[in-house]
Design brief:
The complex is a heterodimer of chains A (about 350) and B (about 325). With about 350 residues, chain A is mostly helical. Chain A has 14 helices and 2 strands. Chain A has a single domain, classed as ABC transporter involved in vitamin B12 uptake, BtuC (Orthogonal Bundle). In chain A, a hairpin with a 2-residue loop joins strand 1 and strand 2. In chain B, a hairpin with a 2-residue loop joins strand 2 and strand 3. Chain B is globular and about 75 Å long. In chain B, the strands form 2 sheets. A two-stranded antiparallel ribbon of chain B has the order 1-4. A two-stranded antiparallel ribbon of chain B has the order 2-3. Classes of the chains: A mainly alpha (about 350), B mainly alpha (about 325). Chains A and B meet through helix 5, helix 6, helix 12 and helix 14 of A and helix 5, helix 6, helix 10, helix 12 and helix 14 of B.
Chain lengths: ~350, ~325
Amino acid sequence: MDITLKAEHDPMTTDTTAIRLHEETNSRRLRFRGKGEPLALIGALIVLISIFSILNPRFATLVNLQNILSQASLPLIIGVGATFVILIGSIDLSVEGVMGAAGVVFVLLSANSRGGHDLGIWAWVAAIAIGIALGAANGLILTRIKLPSFIVTFGMWFIGLGIATILYGTDALPSLTNDALTTWVSHIAFLFPNVVWLAAALLIVATLVLRFTIFGRATLAIGNNEEIARSNGMPVNKYKVVIFIIAGGMSALAGILAAMQLGAVSNNVGSGYLFITIPAVVIGGTALSGGKGGMLQTALGVLLLTVLNNGLVLAGVSPDYQSALSGAILVAAIVAAAWSQRGRLRIAK
Amino acid sequence: MTSTIIATEPAVDITKQSRARLAHRAGKFWRAGGPAVIFVAMFLVVAILTPAFLGGGGFTIVASSAAPILLVALGQALVLNIGSIDLSNASITLLGAILLALTLGPLGAVSPLVVLLMVTLFGAVNGVIVAFAQVPSFALTLGTFGIFQAAALVVSGATTVYVSQNAGLITPLYTSAVAGIPLTFVLGVVAAALAWFMLRFTRVGQGMTAIGKNESGAIFSAVRTRKLKIVAYSLSGFMAGLAGITIIAQAGSASSTGLGSDLLLPGIAAAIFGGTSISGGVTNPLNVIFGALTVALVPIATAVIGIAAQAQNLVYGIIIILIVALTLTRSRNAIIK
């Protein structure tokens, strides 16, 4: 009654009330928006873990936890690089090619069944350098020749595979002969395998870089609005090249570790990793349009997919169904994330 | 003194203008004919280096391996044209081929129609989710890619499914030819011509291009964007189904790892080689024909010329980047992601 009276006398008052109420609702929504998604993911993870523990008592054991974490390590390492790239709104499809090139270089330069040189630590350096070079090529072609990252990295995927295939040649499968290398990945130090600690350390460093350094904040700013980042004087192109170099280096490291895990290498050592990593990053809540997301979300996404795959195997589900379940979860996750933001004028590509 | 300056300035302007006009015209010609020029040039290089290639039915080989790529690429080009992407279409092709191999025996001539209806519905599901849930198409179709892939694996029982009877209904598509060009490729060319006609002369096609160029603008101009997105994805599914039919025509069998299991990336590459922009609004289905021919030619050409098989991937990757660098139209201040 009071309000309607006011409205008759002074329409402005009711207008501002409506706006104020609207803003309050908005700010309340905003406060929870950042936390809602990770909480939902953790909830989903807990539900999955409980169900799988009931289905198979072997699921909730230390040995299986070690298994799950070491399965998650390589996608996580690649995911750290991929998250940086996706945060600036680009995409890196070259993961599998870079892994192949780095893996082959690493094995051929270490003590292997084909003979040749054993460069020791320099094999690591050379393999990572290949990844960095391919990543730098991605970044430079994106920023100088201005080709979309989708196409550049798509081409670089085949270039990496090509380098791997040429170096691999036609001889027999080269396997690592140094046992110290082949057992390092799965060697258990303080409860968990080495590779898990390595992935965790990289995750922590990347989280800190993204949160507390100028480079990290610039990454988010570029993804949020590149034009504004540029007009504020950020060296956007330089940051983009650095980000692709990081992604290339991470893929190369993953290639080395994959070769060490297998104890041997072929050019297809990275096969399948791209289509684990990108869904994991997206399920974690990092937006493909850039500017929104983070490292810990990616870690949650990787964990969710790994727990799902591992649990399904232990529950006796045929592996044939696995890609369908991962796919269905990806679809459900993105639909749930986008549902509240639907609008007639909203544009989603 | 001053008069000379006044006299020269407009003269400079005119040469500048005519040069700009010339550059514009050259650009226009390149956009219209670039993909064809690139394919013909590559084909001629191969033919000159290895004359036996032409005598040995070189074009027939290229055309028959280009047919499924072309059909998948046409669907992809229609989806790219609205500014989205369809990563699931190649897995729909495979699922369609497997369903066709399973049903051709019992259902006979009805089977291709049933399969085409099903794959169109699969595409429409993608379209409905993209249009109404407003999710990024890259992530969505990556998810449905996994679902269709698993479906193909489960439906086929993870083995090769052979066509039991009535194979004669489909195989003539591959075995008979018009002027040395297999019918499967002719099917692709007809589909490309129809797609071109649709984009150029119908309201549906113009609306799709409008979505790709400026979606907000399209919405405000009362273009029924959601309906058109569903149509674009349905057509992508339909084209993928046609590609599945060409696979059965060629192989007489289908499996989740056999012929056609790696069509996704060649399909995208062919659409892009054909001058399709991945940000939307620019595509010419007739050029996609040459894009698909180029994609099919690269591995055959490297083998024919005598480049080691190991170098094929490397050459392929470099060519992708080079061709796009040559054919991409860029505006100076555009933000490239």
